[in-house]
Amino acid sequence: MRVALFATCLGDRLFADACADAVRLLRKLGCEVDFPEGQTCCGQPAFNAGYVEEARRMARHTMEVFAGAEHVVLPSGSCAGMLRRYYPELFQGAARARAEDLAERTWELSQFIVRVLGVRELGAGLRGRHIAYHHGCHALRELGVRDEPVGLLRSAGADVVPWDADEECCGFGGLFSVKFPPVSTGMADRKLDSLPGVDVVTSADGGCLMQMSGRARRRGMTTPFRHLASVLLEATA
């Protein structure tokens, strides 16, 4: 199965190791992974800010770059949600059909592993680890990704610790955190105040990890925050 990795802006700049781990993981599962070098931003920041024409221009470029991909996999529920849910809304006619075609071939990483590859067990490399999983808003509410990441973690021996706020927004929301920093900070604090004692916190979204880990450092917390791709690769050991 041929897979094209869409690294995303945050992945490229801040989570390069997680992107590399996603490639390693997919190859371990038998996929041939390509990385189209022409990829850029998915257009979500512009779309959320109301710059629809700019978002449409980036969407056209993305559709062109990934036109020949059998499947497009992203280590980001947020950007995957943009492609699947909002690209078709940007276009009419033939362009909309192309957007819908890309949307049908686009997957968040854990969603692809479980729903497309049919893999529910990766190994036992997380045995004895206490892990908290944060459900990013876009993966959970736009893509319906809830059981896939948690199931993969548990099947590898991890104790996914109950967390009262695991489905609450972390406060990042891209432009939201820039426009409403006090509210954003309060939402992050709520998450961290309810965080149980764990070995690591993981999530499918780099933006959420950046938000929570940055606030945790400001508060003097030492809990590690790692991208799901890296944790799942460790699970295969």
Map the helices and strands.
Layout: E1 2-5, H1 9-14, H2 16-28, E2 32-34, H3 44-48, H4 52-65, E3 71-74, H5 77-86, H6 93-104, E4 106-108, H7 109-116, E5 130-134, H8 137-142, H9 147-155, E6 159-160, H10 175-179, H11 181-193, E7 200-203, H12 206-218, E8 225-227, H13 228-235
Helix pairs in contact: 2-13, 11-12
Structure in a nutshell:
The protein is α/β, with parallel strands linked by helices. Helix content is 51%, strand content 12%.
General description of the model:
This protein has 237 residues and is an alpha/beta fold. It has two domains: 2-116, no CATH class; 130-235. The protein has helices at 9-14, 16-28, 44-48, 52-65, 77-86, 93-104, 109-116, 137-142, 147-155, 175-179, 181-193, 206-218, 228-235, and strands at residues 2-5, 32-34, 71-74, 106-108, 130-134, 159-160, 200-203, 225-227. The strands form two sheets. It has a four-stranded parallel beta sheet, with helices on both faces. Strands 6-5-7-8 form a four-stranded parallel beta sheet, with helices on both faces. Strand 7, helix 12 (206-218) and strand 8 (225-227) form a beta-alpha-beta unit. Helix 11 (181-193) crosses helix 12 (206-218). The longest helix is centred in the first third of the chain and has 14 residues, at 52-65. It is globular and about 50 Å long. The two termini are 22 Å apart. The mean pLDDT is 96.
Portion of residues in beta strands equals 5-15%
Low-confidence stretches: none
What proportion of the residues is helical, as a percent range?
40-55%
Please give the alpha-carbon distance between the first and last residues. Answer: 22 Å
Number of strands: 8
